[in-house]
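Human: You know discrete backbone vocabularies at least as well as I do. Show me how you would write down a chain together with its backbone fold. No explanation is needed for now; the record alone will do.

Assistant:
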Amino acid sequence: PYQYAVFQRHEHGGPTGEVLKLVRVEPDFNTAYDILRQHAATTVEEHPGWGATFAEVANNMFEIHDHNNDVRVRYEIALALNSGTTEVGELIWQRADEDTSPSSADGSDELYLMDIDIDCQGQGQDTVKHFMTGAYRSLAEASTAMKAAAAAYLDKHEGVKLLERQIELIDERKVVRQRYTVGPGRYVNKQLISETEWLKRQNQDSTQVATPAPSSPLAGPLLEPVIHQVKPRPQRTLTAKAQSKATKPLDPTPWCTCRQPDDGSLMLGCENDDCPVQWYHAHCVGLEEAPQGAWDCPTCAP
């Protein structure tokens, strides 16, 4: 079976300029990555002359930089296969991408890779560490490896849950027959659309101006952009009845994703004070009655 080998590369004065050392072999990528970090931390402690160090991933290599921003040591995680034993009984490991046998069971050159993003919880893409590993000979092998890596992480991190955002059903010819994808969305004018489509419309409508009909007294943006600032909320409760236009005019402030003012129908206020929309027409989010207790809009809901 495939294993994951952690290799250390460090500068050396020899002909190649680098020395490659096998650190450890583990059954899944996440466990191998933990070993990599532990070994890197020990290596840094053994070299105080490097000063303040930092790590980054470049070209699929985990690099340790010294205080001068010079790379002092590199690590790599590679898919490995056991190719035999030494005279003293030690296992011999060969990188899967160096295997000279046919790439797949049917003799084709088709291989599968696994992309891994680590430290995604940071602020911005600069903190994400991206790796690629592979030379899997079938999609099933790659899928199994992906699940094994995720399972290893789940075992070590309490409270973390597995979320499958996409499932593909593939036939014997490797053709996708069905695909299921989950993701954020919202109701706009009683129509369910994805969050990506909504943002696309927002960007388009903020730059387009409607041409009113000759009889129309109004002209302006098709859809006004959401203004990210806290506005005074309508002075009404979630279950308040429509106010009488004769006694008190309705607030003309545009609300909701439809960017229309309070029309006297049921309005729902998002509990998140930082919500960019703040108030919604109930019918725009597919509700007919006010929910019990606190309510988070589709954008702010966890």
The chain has a mean pLDDT of 77. The domain at 185-208+221-302 is CATH 3.30.40.10 (Herpes Virus-1). The helical segments are 29-45, 139-156, 195-205. The longest strand covers residues 71-85.
